[in-house]
Amino acid sequence: MTLYPIETGNFKLDGGAMFGVVPKTIWQKTNPADEKNMIDIAARSLLIEDGNRLILIDTGLGHKQSDKFFGYYYLWGDFSLDASLAKYGFHKDDITDVFMTHLHFDHCGGSIQWNKDRTGYEPAFKNARFWTNQAHWEWATKPNAREKASFLKENLLPMQESGQLNFIDTPKSDDRGHTYINESELGFGILFVDGHTDKQMLPHFTYQGKKLVFMADLIPTAGHIPLPYVIGYDTRPLLTLAEKEVFLNKAVAEEYLLFFEHDAHHEICTLQHTDKGVRLHEIYTFNELFN
What we know:
Elements: E1 2-14, H1 15-19, H2 24-27, E2 38-50, E3 53-57, H3 67-71, H4 81-87, E4 97-99, H5 105-108, E5 112-114, E6 121-123, E7 129-133, H6 134-141, H7 153-161, E8 165-168, E9 179-181, E10 189-193, E11 200-207, E12 210-214, H8 237-253, E13 256-259, E14 268-274, E15 277-284, H9 286-290
Parallel strand pairs: 3-4, 4-7, 7-8, 12-13
Antiparallel strand pairs: 1-2, 2-3, 5-6, 9-10, 10-11, 11-12, 13-14, 14-15
């Protein structure tokens, strides 16, 4: 197995929305805001080359939305999904599987693109199977009012219409309500969490002797490690608190490396116990650890 970090593009989000009840005077120390209160956000994916499979975890925002839509998110930087894949000698047509941690537009928008004459939509990965889970698919395609703006039908329905949609099995919860798959049909473990959105999936890898976890939106940036730092978009913030507490303690005990999807300036970190709880220990780039 070989892993590659894939930068699909950067954008900005409102800092207050990203930190919920935490005051700006505190969160801006780790995630400084601009004059519009916007903070830097990445859309960092992960590519897994494993035998004859090439699996992409999440696909970023994509390019099919209107200029008005993207105007809300202040796109910045030079990264793109196509260029990042090409950096390692790959093309979207080489992808065999697209695994989506959840179906909010900034995680799956790049999965679907305009067709050639812009009369409709088609999968951007024509040879891939798209993976979510049944419970989250139902949640996303029949959205609640809070998340409706994040679940866009043009990102979702073409996966099903193309026949490329597949569902990961969901295991039963343990006695604390947390669901793990030790190893999925894609060759990596998955943690299911429900605080941000129903049945979000966090991939777990053992890679070069280290345990790496793709954090998605449970802990979107290094600034979100402390327990109360829960993003305002979460549908069940108190559940996120409980899920984070279990995860953070497990991460310290088992020496996890946290791979950040949304931290524009930090790729990976380790954690440590302190008198204030679990906190950031060290920051690394992917290449520092694995090349």
